[in-house]
TrEMBL record:
GO terms for biological process, alphabetical: SRP-dependent cotranslational protein targeting to membrane
Gene it is expressed from: ftsY
SRP54-type proteins GTP-binding domain span: 289-302
Domain of life: Bacteria
Catalytic activity, as annotated: GTP + H2O = GDP + phosphate + H(+)
EC number annotated for this UniProt entry: 3.6.5.4
Keywords: Cell membrane, Cytoplasm, GTP-binding, Hydrolase, Membrane, Nucleotide-binding, Receptor
Topology versus the membrane: Peripheral membrane protein
GO cellular component: cytoplasm; plasma membrane
Family matches, as SMART domains: AAA (SM00382), SRP54 (SM00962), SRP54_N (SM00963)
InterPro entries: AAA+_ATPase, P-loop_NTPase, Signal_recog_particl_SRP54_hlx, SR_rcpt_FtsY, SRP/SRP_N, SRP54_GTPase_dom, SRP54_N_sf
Family: Belongs to the GTP-binding SRP family. FtsY subfamily.
Its biological purpose: Involved in targeting and insertion of nascent membrane proteins into the cytoplasmic membrane. Acts as a receptor for the complex formed by the signal recognition particle (SRP) and the ribosome-nascent chain (RNC).
Name of the featured protein: Signal recognition particle receptor FtsY
Length: 318
Protein backbone atom coordinates (compact mmCIF):
# COMPACT_ATOMS: atom_id res chain seq x y z
CA UNK A 1 0.00 0.00 0.00
CA UNK A 2 1.44 3.37 -1.01
CA UNK A 3 1.66 6.31 1.35
CA UNK A 4 -1.39 7.75 -0.38
CA UNK A 5 -3.74 5.36 -2.08
CA UNK A 6 -6.42 7.78 -3.18
CA UNK A 7 -6.39 10.85 -5.40
CA UNK A 8 -7.93 13.75 -3.49
CA UNK A 9 -9.60 16.83 -4.96
CA UNK A 10 -6.74 19.00 -3.64
CA UNK A 11 -4.14 16.79 -5.32
CA UNK A 12 -6.05 16.94 -8.57
CA UNK A 13 -6.17 20.76 -8.41
CA UNK A 14 -2.39 20.89 -7.75
CA UNK A 15 -1.78 18.54 -10.69
CA UNK A 16 -4.01 20.56 -13.04
CA UNK A 17 -2.34 23.81 -12.01
CA UNK A 18 1.15 22.28 -12.22
CA UNK A 19 0.59 21.01 -15.76
CA UNK A 20 -1.19 24.16 -16.96
CA UNK A 21 1.76 25.59 -18.93
CA UNK A 22 2.56 22.23 -20.55
CA UNK A 23 -1.07 21.75 -21.51
CA UNK A 24 -1.48 25.25 -22.96
CA UNK A 25 1.73 24.98 -24.95
CA UNK A 26 0.96 21.47 -26.21
CA UNK A 27 -2.60 22.20 -27.29
CA UNK A 28 -1.61 25.55 -28.76
CA UNK A 29 0.88 23.75 -31.00
CA UNK A 30 -1.57 20.96 -31.77
CA UNK A 31 -4.34 23.38 -32.76
CA UNK A 32 -2.00 25.22 -35.12
CA UNK A 33 -0.75 21.92 -36.56
CA UNK A 34 -4.20 20.66 -37.54
CA UNK A 35 -5.73 24.01 -38.55
CA UNK A 36 -7.74 23.65 -41.73
CA UNK A 37 -7.51 19.84 -41.69
CA UNK A 38 -10.48 17.54 -41.35
CA UNK A 39 -8.89 14.11 -41.32
CA UNK A 40 -5.70 12.60 -39.96
CA UNK A 41 -3.44 12.07 -42.96
CA UNK A 42 0.34 11.87 -43.43
CA UNK A 43 0.67 15.64 -43.31
CA UNK A 44 -1.16 15.82 -39.95
CA UNK A 45 0.99 12.97 -38.59
CA UNK A 46 4.16 14.81 -39.67
CA UNK A 47 2.96 17.94 -37.92
CA UNK A 48 1.96 15.95 -34.84
CA UNK A 49 5.43 14.42 -34.73
CA UNK A 50 6.91 17.91 -34.66
CA UNK A 51 4.49 18.98 -31.87
CA UNK A 52 5.47 16.00 -29.69
CA UNK A 53 9.22 16.46 -30.23
CA UNK A 54 9.05 20.18 -29.46
CA UNK A 55 6.98 19.37 -26.36
CA UNK A 56 9.96 17.44 -24.93
CA UNK A 57 8.38 14.02 -25.29
CA UNK A 58 11.64 12.89 -26.94
CA UNK A 59 12.29 11.54 -30.44
CA UNK A 60 12.06 7.79 -29.70
CA UNK A 61 8.85 8.07 -27.68
CA UNK A 62 7.36 10.40 -30.29
CA UNK A 63 8.04 7.85 -33.05
CA UNK A 64 6.45 5.18 -30.88
CA UNK A 65 3.30 7.30 -30.39
CA UNK A 66 3.11 8.19 -34.11
CA UNK A 67 3.47 4.52 -35.01
CA UNK A 68 0.55 3.65 -32.72
CA UNK A 69 -1.61 6.38 -34.23
CA UNK A 70 -0.72 5.28 -37.79
CA UNK A 71 -1.91 1.78 -36.93
CA UNK A 72 -5.13 3.20 -35.50
CA UNK A 73 -5.70 5.28 -38.65
CA UNK A 74 -5.00 2.26 -40.89
CA UNK A 75 -7.39 0.13 -38.87
CA UNK A 76 -10.21 2.69 -38.61
CA UNK A 77 -9.71 3.86 -42.24
CA UNK A 78 -10.99 7.38 -41.51
CA UNK A 79 -10.03 9.36 -38.43
CA UNK A 80 -11.06 12.97 -38.01
CA UNK A 81 -8.88 15.67 -36.53
CA UNK A 82 -11.48 16.06 -33.75
CA UNK A 83 -10.84 12.47 -32.65
CA UNK A 84 -7.09 13.00 -32.52
CA UNK A 85 -7.15 14.37 -28.97
CA UNK A 86 -8.89 11.24 -27.64
CA UNK A 87 -6.64 8.90 -29.60
CA UNK A 88 -3.51 10.68 -28.37
CA UNK A 89 -4.75 10.48 -24.79
CA UNK A 90 -5.51 6.75 -25.12
CA UNK A 91 -2.18 5.92 -26.73
CA UNK A 92 -0.09 7.90 -24.23
CA UNK A 93 -2.03 6.37 -21.32
CA UNK A 94 -1.45 2.84 -22.62
CA UNK A 95 2.22 3.63 -23.32
CA UNK A 96 2.75 4.75 -19.71
CA UNK A 97 0.86 1.74 -18.39
CA UNK A 98 2.87 -0.74 -20.46
CA UNK A 99 6.16 0.68 -19.25
CA UNK A 100 5.37 0.56 -15.56
CA UNK A 101 4.16 -2.83 -14.51
CA UNK A 102 3.77 -1.89 -10.85
CA UNK A 103 0.70 0.30 -10.41
CA UNK A 104 1.70 1.56 -6.99
CA UNK A 105 1.85 5.24 -6.20
CA UNK A 106 4.79 6.53 -4.23
CA UNK A 107 6.88 4.17 -2.15
CA UNK A 108 5.58 0.91 -0.77
CA UNK A 109 7.29 -0.11 2.45
CA UNK A 110 7.46 -3.90 2.43
CA UNK A 111 7.17 -5.99 5.56
CA UNK A 112 10.47 -7.13 7.04
CA UNK A 113 12.61 -4.39 5.49
CA UNK A 114 13.20 -2.07 8.41
CA UNK A 115 14.68 0.41 8.01
CA UNK A 116 13.75 0.83 4.35
CA UNK A 117 16.75 2.60 2.83
CA UNK A 118 16.30 5.05 -0.04
CA UNK A 119 19.47 6.45 -1.61
CA UNK A 120 18.74 9.66 -3.51
CA UNK A 121 20.92 10.62 -6.49
CA UNK A 122 20.92 13.45 -9.03
CA UNK A 123 22.98 16.46 -10.09
CA UNK A 124 23.09 19.60 -7.98
CA UNK A 125 20.24 22.03 -8.48
CA UNK A 126 17.54 19.56 -9.53
CA UNK A 127 15.70 19.78 -6.20
CA UNK A 128 17.23 16.65 -4.67
CA UNK A 129 17.49 17.85 -1.06
CA UNK A 130 14.06 19.50 -1.22
CA UNK A 131 12.58 16.25 -2.54
CA UNK A 132 14.16 14.37 0.39
CA UNK A 133 12.70 16.90 2.83
CA UNK A 134 9.22 16.59 1.33
CA UNK A 135 9.43 12.79 1.32
CA UNK A 136 10.52 12.85 4.98
CA UNK A 137 7.49 15.00 5.75
CA UNK A 138 5.12 12.65 3.93
CA UNK A 139 6.57 9.51 5.56
CA UNK A 140 6.36 11.13 9.00
CA UNK A 141 2.79 12.23 8.34
CA UNK A 142 2.02 8.59 7.51
CA UNK A 143 3.28 7.64 10.99
CA UNK A 144 6.76 6.44 10.01
CA UNK A 145 9.97 7.07 11.91
CA UNK A 146 12.42 8.72 9.51
CA UNK A 147 16.18 9.35 9.53
CA UNK A 148 18.10 11.61 7.14
CA UNK A 149 21.73 11.04 6.13
CA UNK A 150 23.77 13.99 4.81
CA UNK A 151 26.13 12.08 2.50
CA UNK A 152 26.58 15.03 0.15
CA UNK A 153 29.65 16.13 2.09
CA UNK A 154 31.16 18.14 -0.77
CA UNK A 155 28.88 21.13 -0.44
CA UNK A 156 28.26 22.85 2.88
CA UNK A 157 25.03 24.23 1.42
CA UNK A 158 23.67 20.72 0.84
CA UNK A 159 24.21 19.72 4.48
CA UNK A 160 22.75 23.02 5.72
CA UNK A 161 19.71 22.64 3.50
CA UNK A 162 19.10 19.10 4.74
CA UNK A 163 19.48 20.32 8.33
CA UNK A 164 16.81 22.96 7.75
CA UNK A 165 14.46 20.25 6.45
CA UNK A 166 15.25 17.99 9.40
CA UNK A 167 14.25 20.79 11.80
CA UNK A 168 11.22 21.76 9.77
CA UNK A 169 9.88 18.22 9.56
CA UNK A 170 11.09 17.18 13.01
CA UNK A 171 13.18 14.16 11.99
CA UNK A 172 16.78 13.36 13.04
CA UNK A 173 19.70 13.98 10.71
CA UNK A 174 23.14 12.34 10.79
CA UNK A 175 26.00 14.46 9.45
CA UNK A 176 29.75 14.88 9.69
CA UNK A 177 32.27 17.58 8.86
CA UNK A 178 32.29 18.95 5.34
CA UNK A 179 34.61 16.93 3.12
CA UNK A 180 34.32 13.78 5.22
CA UNK A 181 33.75 10.37 3.63
CA UNK A 182 30.16 10.12 2.29
CA UNK A 183 30.13 6.35 2.93
CA UNK A 184 31.07 6.95 6.57
CA UNK A 185 28.05 9.27 6.97
CA UNK A 186 25.77 6.63 5.41
CA UNK A 187 27.20 3.99 7.79
CA UNK A 188 26.55 6.22 10.84
CA UNK A 189 23.04 7.06 9.60
CA UNK A 190 22.05 3.41 9.21
CA UNK A 191 23.62 2.47 12.56
CA UNK A 192 21.61 5.19 14.34
CA UNK A 193 18.46 4.32 12.43
CA UNK A 194 18.81 0.62 13.34
CA UNK A 195 19.49 1.42 17.00
CA UNK A 196 16.42 3.67 17.19
CA UNK A 197 13.94 1.50 15.29
CA UNK A 198 13.55 3.78 12.27
CA UNK A 199 11.19 2.76 9.46
CA UNK A 200 12.75 4.78 6.64
CA UNK A 201 16.21 6.21 5.92
CA UNK A 202 16.76 8.81 3.20
CA UNK A 203 20.40 9.24 2.14
CA UNK A 204 21.40 12.37 0.21
CA UNK A 205 24.39 11.96 -2.13
CA UNK A 206 26.71 14.31 -4.04
CA UNK A 207 25.53 15.39 -7.46
CA UNK A 208 28.70 15.56 -9.49
CA UNK A 209 28.41 14.12 -12.96
CA UNK A 210 31.51 15.43 -14.71
CA UNK A 211 33.35 12.21 -13.93
CA UNK A 212 31.12 9.18 -14.32
CA UNK A 213 33.73 6.77 -13.04
CA UNK A 214 34.23 8.83 -9.87
CA UNK A 215 30.48 8.97 -9.31
CA UNK A 216 30.11 5.23 -9.91
CA UNK A 217 32.92 4.41 -7.49
CA UNK A 218 31.51 6.70 -4.84
CA UNK A 219 27.94 5.38 -5.06
CA UNK A 220 29.22 1.79 -5.09
CA UNK A 221 31.26 2.47 -1.97
CA UNK A 222 28.27 4.03 -0.16
CA UNK A 223 26.22 0.92 -1.03
CA UNK A 224 28.95 -1.48 0.16
CA UNK A 225 29.41 0.32 3.46
CA UNK A 226 25.63 0.53 4.09
CA UNK A 227 25.37 -3.22 3.53
CA UNK A 228 27.58 -3.80 6.57
CA UNK A 229 24.65 -2.48 8.63
CA UNK A 230 21.63 -3.41 6.48
CA UNK A 231 22.64 -6.31 4.19
CA UNK A 232 20.24 -5.52 1.32
CA UNK A 233 20.54 -1.72 1.43
CA UNK A 234 19.73 0.42 -0.42
CA UNK A 235 16.25 -0.88 -1.15
CA UNK A 236 15.69 1.89 -3.65
CA UNK A 237 17.94 4.23 -5.62
CA UNK A 238 15.86 7.25 -6.58
CA UNK A 239 17.07 9.58 -9.32
CA UNK A 240 15.79 13.16 -9.07
CA UNK A 241 15.51 15.07 -12.37
CA UNK A 242 14.52 18.68 -13.03
CA UNK A 243 11.64 18.49 -15.52
CA UNK A 244 12.10 22.13 -16.54
CA UNK A 245 15.42 21.25 -18.21
CA UNK A 246 13.61 19.14 -20.83
CA UNK A 247 16.06 17.19 -22.97
CA UNK A 248 18.85 17.79 -20.47
CA UNK A 249 16.87 15.66 -18.00
CA UNK A 250 17.00 12.80 -20.55
CA UNK A 251 20.77 13.15 -20.75
CA UNK A 252 21.13 13.10 -16.96
CA UNK A 253 18.90 10.04 -16.73
CA UNK A 254 21.11 8.33 -19.31
CA UNK A 255 24.31 9.17 -17.43
CA UNK A 256 23.01 8.15 -14.01
CA UNK A 257 21.47 4.89 -15.20
CA UNK A 258 24.89 4.02 -16.63
CA UNK A 259 26.67 5.03 -13.41
CA UNK A 260 24.46 3.20 -10.93
CA UNK A 261 21.40 1.00 -10.73
CA UNK A 262 18.49 3.44 -10.58
CA UNK A 263 15.22 1.86 -9.44
CA UNK A 264 12.86 4.85 -9.30
CA UNK A 265 12.63 8.48 -10.36
CA UNK A 266 11.20 11.78 -9.19
CA UNK A 267 10.70 14.56 -11.73
CA UNK A 268 10.59 18.01 -10.15
CA UNK A 269 9.79 21.63 -11.09
CA UNK A 270 6.99 20.80 -13.52
CA UNK A 271 4.82 23.68 -12.34
CA UNK A 272 6.95 26.47 -13.81
CA UNK A 273 7.53 24.93 -17.21
CA UNK A 274 5.87 23.89 -20.46
CA UNK A 275 8.16 20.84 -20.62
CA UNK A 276 5.91 18.38 -18.75
CA UNK A 277 6.00 16.09 -21.79
CA UNK A 278 9.42 15.00 -20.53
CA UNK A 279 7.65 12.78 -17.96
CA UNK A 280 6.11 10.74 -20.79
CA UNK A 281 9.42 10.34 -22.63
CA UNK A 282 11.51 9.49 -19.58
CA UNK A 283 8.94 7.00 -18.33
CA UNK A 284 8.85 5.35 -21.76
CA UNK A 285 12.57 5.35 -22.56
CA UNK A 286 14.05 4.25 -19.27
CA UNK A 287 11.41 1.73 -18.14
CA UNK A 288 12.06 2.88 -14.56
CA UNK A 289 8.99 3.88 -12.54
CA UNK A 290 8.48 7.60 -12.04
CA UNK A 291 7.36 7.54 -8.39
CA UNK A 292 6.93 11.26 -7.72
CA UNK A 293 6.40 14.51 -9.58
CA UNK A 294 7.11 17.96 -8.14
CA UNK A 295 4.38 20.50 -8.82
CA UNK A 296 5.25 23.41 -6.55
CA UNK A 297 7.06 24.67 -3.46
CA UNK A 298 4.70 23.30 -0.81
CA UNK A 299 5.43 20.07 1.09
CA UNK A 300 2.25 18.55 -0.34
CA UNK A 301 3.23 19.54 -3.88
CA UNK A 302 5.48 16.51 -4.27
CA UNK A 303 2.88 14.04 -5.51
CA UNK A 304 3.02 10.31 -6.00
CA UNK A 305 2.90 9.94 -9.80
CA UNK A 306 -0.51 8.69 -10.86
CA UNK A 307 -0.29 7.88 -14.57
CA UNK A 308 -4.01 7.94 -15.26
CA UNK A 309 -4.54 11.25 -13.49
CA UNK A 310 -1.47 12.73 -15.19
CA UNK A 311 -2.80 11.92 -18.66
CA UNK A 312 -6.32 13.02 -17.74
CA UNK A 313 -5.00 16.34 -16.47
CA UNK A 314 -2.84 16.87 -19.55
CA UNK A 315 -5.72 16.16 -21.90
CA UNK A 316 -8.50 18.01 -20.17
CA UNK A 317 -9.89 15.74 -17.46
CA UNK A 318 -12.47 13.87 -19.47
Amino acid sequence: MGIFSFFSKEKKETLDKGLEKTKESFFGKLTRAVAGKSKVDDDVLDRLEEVLVTSDVGVDTTLNIIDRIEKRVARDKYVTVNELNDILRDEIASLLTENNTADTEGFVLPEGKKPYVIMVVGVNGVGKTTTIGKLAYQFKKAGKKVYLGASDTFRAAAVEQLEIWSERVGVPIVKQQMGSDPASVAFDTLSSAMANGADVVLIDTAGRLHNKKGLMDELSKIKRVMQKVVPDAPHDVMLVLDGSTGQNAFEQAKQFTLATEVTSMAITKLDGTAKGGVVIGISDQFKIPVRYIGLGEGVEDLQPFNRKEFVKSLFGNE
